[in-house]
């Protein structure tokens, strides 16, 4: 009898830590289904595969949006809303009115430490913030009760469960005090609230963490203030804020303050320490748990607006004629080639095939010049790439565009799903997933077919993060079988033409309703 958890402690989860962990759990479930105690988690795992459409040689998995159940129940801070305080310009999802705006803070300061992804404190009243050396947020205790001296120390970075990520993030303390001592003299008085958060951790390491750990939570935390908020950035990394400047400019009208270097005592009427996450999953949101009802569709819309991206909808393609010729109208496909790991070895062949399938192809590597690169992504209808952080660029696609994730060999379904399939669904881009076979991985040149890499990939997962990532994420390149892959491009084209008619309907509905 296998003991699936035996090697768990040897795993060193890094960026894909949780992915691996749950892979282990899911695998272990196959051994313990009879016990019945884990039924709920089994059904959760299964509910991800909603519909499987067979097309020719292989199968295309299609995942229509479904309500996303969270594996854990989170405790959410309930804050009162003051809808009369909503300024005109508050960023709101299109067509949404009413339940919105900046929530009022409860009188007593709250640090909610119950969320698996982030700790968040909210306080109103006499707030004094000192970044340099002390890393303190002082708040006058509420008049009722004797809470003087109470304090909370948190890392204001939204990847709490990941010890490796948080390691580089320094703690900030919120303390209730009446006598501020030397920290009492306000060098600057503000009438706007403060938002203190860190960008250390894995942000800057890759695009997925930039978004999952910081930008998506930052959007949820800062957007309700509609620009009237002072951002204080701890653990700043040179160039990072600059790189994502359009977000910062749209989220706050005031220049960012570097918390770690700031020795002024700054006084605010209100503070949020840490970033809110309505979902415990990275690069995802749960609108029902957000006071504003924010969704990933809103985040994508906010992103297109911040970066000034012109295309809200994909290219207008006529519906293909049944049994007839394909239209000559071209859709645009972005092919992310990747240069180092998990790269396509036959890019030219893929391009020729895609052109034959009616696409104009843009071959790229994700670039650090996001202002420029986001425009190129937005000019495309389909984003295609091997599993990797560059797929995060889906956030720049027009709504209703298509993402094709090519999943490498090695039973990578969990990370493929949680990191890109579910977020794509939430952003309402269409999603196609192509899993390569043994013929298409270059691992076949390094390992014989009898090797566990082919015969039992899960046993490689069980050897821990280092081995798993070395073999399946680093050593592997993809030699795409263009014959086998072709139906996916046909499907993508079909999605685009269908999306467009749906989008037109939607626009009409909105005009009719507003
Ligand atoms: C593959 O699919 C296409 C389009 O759906 C169809 O015309 C063709 O006959 C199919 N080929 C096979 C071998 O099933
Ligand atoms: C709500 O906001 C309005 C307008 O800013 C303000 O006058 C009012 O005092 C606020 N009410 C509460 C309960 O905070
Ligand atoms: C800030 O406000 C406090 C209290 O009103 C006042 O004593 C202090 O002088 C103000 N500081 C500045 C720089 O205006
Ligand atoms: C590519 O895929 C097709 C369809 O599955 C298959 O017939 C063909 O043998 C594959 N080619 C290679 C080189 O594996």
Automatic annotation (TrEMBL):
Query: What range(s) does the Glycosyltransferase 61 catalytic domain occupy?
Result: 246-404
Q: Where would you find this protein in the cell? A: Golgi apparatus membrane
Recorded GO terms, molecular function? pentosyltransferase activity
Q: Which domain of life is it from?
A: Eukaryota
Residues that span the membrane, as ranges: 15-34
Which keywords are on file for this protein? Glycoprotein, Glycosyltransferase, Membrane, Transferase, Transmembrane, Transmembrane helix
Pathway listed for it? Glycan metabolism
Q: Which Pfam families match?
A: Glyco_transf_61 (PF04577)
Q: Which GO terms describe its cellular component?
A: Golgi membrane
Membrane-protein topology: Single-pass type II membrane protein
The name under which this protein is listed is Glycosyltransferase 61 catalytic domain-containing protein
